[in-house]
TrEMBL record, chains A, B:
This is Hydroxyacid dehydrogenase. SUPFAM superfamilies: FAD-binding/transporter-associated domain-like, FAD-linked oxidases, C-terminal domain. The lineage of its organism: Bacteria, Pseudomonadati, Pseudomonadota, Alphaproteobacteria, Rhodospirillales. Its cofactor is FAD. Belongs to the FAD-binding oxidoreductase/transferase type 4 family. It comes from Azospirillum ramasamyi. GO terms for biological process: respiratory electron transport chain. GO terms for molecular function: catalytic activity; FAD binding. InterPro entries: FAD-bd_oxidored_4_C, FAD-bd_PCMH, FAD-bd_PCMH-like_sf, FAD-bd_PCMH_sub1, FAD-bd_PCMH_sub2, FAD-linked_Oxase-like_C, FAD-oxidored/transferase_4, Oxid_FAD_bind_N.
Length: 492, 492
């Protein structure tokens, strides 16, 4: 849906780029750490889903924090803008360069060591380029859980997860990425290294600087390593898919479940019927789990260190009480791991199914949980008025108030015509979100995708504060410029 | 133990203070909102425990965010330094003015409304001056838990809890204050109001600005209101006091307990025998719970939404397994609420007992949990060499790696002589803490108490980053100056 912000093919490189920038960088990282061939650079220039395409004179792949810092120092001295890149799986165009070819990409691909696991402290020290799934597995190998879990976990890197304060399907229990970070190592925009790799759960010795970098999308520095918090590995899980007639019933069921199961609730995903239909249409092995069709579903999963089937009993008792109260219409509790996996395939098949269904309008929004139902009602009605035939398509992390509100074009509509409605649809959705006290980006970030919407939805004071922070740490605006904020700080 | 940084009785007020500062402030807050009488100001000038005494020309008590902001604007225009103050229960001299009488105290005492409780969203919007215990009670009244819990809860204010990123006895399960804040309203050092009062669990729409203010000890702005996250109210608790022979056994028991009980572990407090003796000596109704004497104890509490006596069974099974493994020597599981309260009196009596026992050297430190035992061994040995006769006195939140390492002077030593050893003792303790990757202030903050130690224990890069942040948001250094950082930014 998106096109690159700049369409010019002109390169804005300084004339002595080869000698002043590239040669000194090559001297640091060697030929193995430097890609300048356009074909080889291609995967670093493009986003996997959303069509951002950029250009760059070089992709640099340092193999140590010191080498990365030395590269950044050269960029700082020569005012060469930098795009930090991890697994390049983000959804907002934050990790690809702009199209003017002026920016160097610094990849963390080769910073991929697990430096230490401290079992009694429940922490693991990893480099930014470690693949999320590898971290999950390393934790599991020592009997621990690293609870960050999201669709891209097989290729996304922890540095990117940190830079975007990643969310995923277990935030309800374990929090966002921010909650899973005990310490950070960061290369600052002037090339200094900040060693904040402390494995502490409590540290009030001055400002908590790591918070500044988590979620800053690489605009304030490059995360090179982190101390991650591990959790006990659950011994039991219980999974159910239940049907409800409306999102407000799902919210009531969530409140009920929290009262009984508390932190055992790991997942509470709301799914509109249309999402199941679309997933089943385009993705193999997605089941239709209940005999009848219902307007809304909830995928709920409990987990506990306490083993045994008590967890399934607890889940069943919650659902029975929900049924008596009229919140739950029907449901199935998985009787086996295979059945649970099958229920999860419904949730996991939705993004792929949607991609194949036609033009869709993606919104990653959050509102207070108590207002999710109102948000859906108001937005569905407003969109139907503005774009008759548009098909509601909502799913997401109800437990966090985070809805992926992704309506799809009318069934036989002309894709080009529908694509032209993007700005209209965005404005309707986001106006209502913000009116309800919500966020226009719950977990994906701003990047370039939402950068021009920031002045509409953030107060001048808040935009100025963000610009103040950016200017303080990156006064020459070389660190991922044009992401989150425009170079002027606040306005496009 | 501490004396005010400046002993001069000279007042550094501008000559037109009355007309340029005080009169316009009186016009905003009225006589009810302004105290200038020295006797009435006295409680605002002193700390309750540590002997900080300051002077100020006025204490201002605005009754709304707008009024507070207007007062700050006057201070900003006239470059009048401000000391924000909540319940004035902090332990580092952060909330009292300096002795030179140049600083105005702005108290949040009258900002004490609970603005909203949103049950389905599990959030509560409160003003900064709300007493922590009142917030806990308001949550309980609607069947929710606000889990921040600490000794001063009957008089400390939530604004101060946020400004110091308070810890307490339930951090292991619920996190520090930072984890309990969904949104903030802050008056910036130039008097602008930032409305970040969003009740969201996920919000990645740009920099997460609230993180900057949490734990900044009022040096970057004044928190005036917050959206707090509530938790389900536990239906069952199980409490035990167990004896162990060494801290390393307590760590092993903690690891064991986490594997079985996971997030049910709310409290895991390590207590040295000397602490129990001293509490019993000076505080009524502190029991000696086990027949024999042991060198170390652990107070452990589990909590769960799931009612019934299964939790006690779980705790007993953990302790039995710990006993078989040789970690646990003896123990008692509370059979009633009254018994649990009695066990808690041991822990709660320690600070009071210590106060009455003589000169003590307080250190609020943290290290990785895996290094707590090493920290205690090394530090005890080093102190005994440097200050023969010093009595080890350690207790604290082992589950967070946070030890209150507070050795007491030799039994019959001269207090004045022992007081003179303060710098020596601090240096020994903090050198070892930092060598082990720890923090010189786990939960109390820096304030003035630790400000001069910052250059010794923080890297130049980290100090410069803190100064950068301070200068960016408070360029004229009027917001709680001389706390955390000296006015020059990095050096005393």
């Amino acid at each position: 849906m998106q096109t690159s912000g700049q369409t010019s093919g002109q390169t804005a490189l300084r004339p002595d780029f080869e000698t002043a920038v590239l040669a000194p960088i090559r001297a640091i990282v060697g030929d193995r750490g430097l890609i300048t061939d356009p074909d080889t650079m291609k995967p670093f220039m493009e986003s996997w889903r959303d069509g951002w395409v950029g250009r760059s004179p070089a992709v640099v792949l340092p193999d140590s924090t010191e080498a990365l810092a030395a590269v950044v120092r050269i960029c700082a001295e020569t005012r060469t803008p930098i795009v930090p890149q991890g697994g390049n799986t983000g959804l907002t165009g934050a990790s690809q360069p702009h199209a003017d070819g002026s920016e160097i990409v610094i990849s963390t691909n080769r910073l991929n060591r697990i430096r230490e696991i401290d079992i009694d402290n429940d922490t693991m020290t990893v480099e930014a380029g470690c693949i999320l799934a590898n971290i999950q597995n390393a934790a599991r190998d020592v009997g621990r859980l690293f609870p960050m879990s999201l669709a891209a976990e097989g290729s996304c890197q922890i540095g990117g997860n940190i830079a975007t304060n990643a969310g995923g399907v277990q935030v309800l229990r374990y929090g966002n990425m921010r909650n899973l970070v005990a310490g950070l190592e960061v290369v600052l925009p002037d090339g200094r290294i900040w060693d904040g790799l402390r494995g502490l759960r409590k540290d009030n010795a001055g400002y908590d600087l790591k918070q500044i970098f988590i979620g800053s999308e690489g605009t304030l520095g490059i995360v090179t390593a982190a101390v991650l918090k591990l959790s006990p590995l659950p011994r039991a899980t219980a999974t159910a898919l239940v049907a409800v007639s409306a999102p407000s019933d799902a919210v009531d069921l969530l409140t009920r479940a929290k009262g009984v199961a508390g932190d055992r609730i790991v997942t509470f995903e709301l799914i509109q019927r249309a999402c199941i239909d679309v997933a089943r249409r385009h993705v193999p092995d997605v089941p239709d789990p209940l005999r009848d069709r219902y307007p809304w579903y909830v995928l709920v999963e409990l987990a506990d260190q306490d083993s045994g089937n008590r967890l399934a009993e607890m889940l069943e008792s919650i659902l029975e009480a929900g049924m008596e109260a009229g919140e739950v219409l029907d449901g199935v509790v998985a009787a086996s791991k295979a059945q649970a996996d099958s229920l999860w395939r419904i949730r996991e098949g939705i993004p792929e199914g949607q991609k194949r269904e036609g033009v869709s309008f993606k919104h990653d929004v959050s509102v207070p949980i108590s207002r999710v139902a109102r948000f859906l009602d108001r937005t569905d009605a407003a969109l139907e008025r503005a774009c008759p035939g548009i098909r509601p398509f909502s799913f997401g992390h109800l437990g966090d108030g985070n809805i992926h509100y992704n309506p799809i074009q009318a069934e036989d509509g002309d894709p080009a015509e529908w694509r032209a409605k993007l700005a209209t649809v965005n404005a309707i959705v986001h106006d209502i979100v913000v009116d309800l006290g919500g966020s226009i980006s719950a977990e994906h970030g701003i990047g370039r995708l939402r950068i021009d919407e920031m002045p509409r939805y953030k107060s001048p004071v808040e935009l100025e504060m963000m610009a103040t922070l950016k200017r303080a740490f990156d006064p020459h605006n070389i660190m991922n410029p044009g992401k989150i904020l425009h170079s002027s700080g606040v306005a496009p």
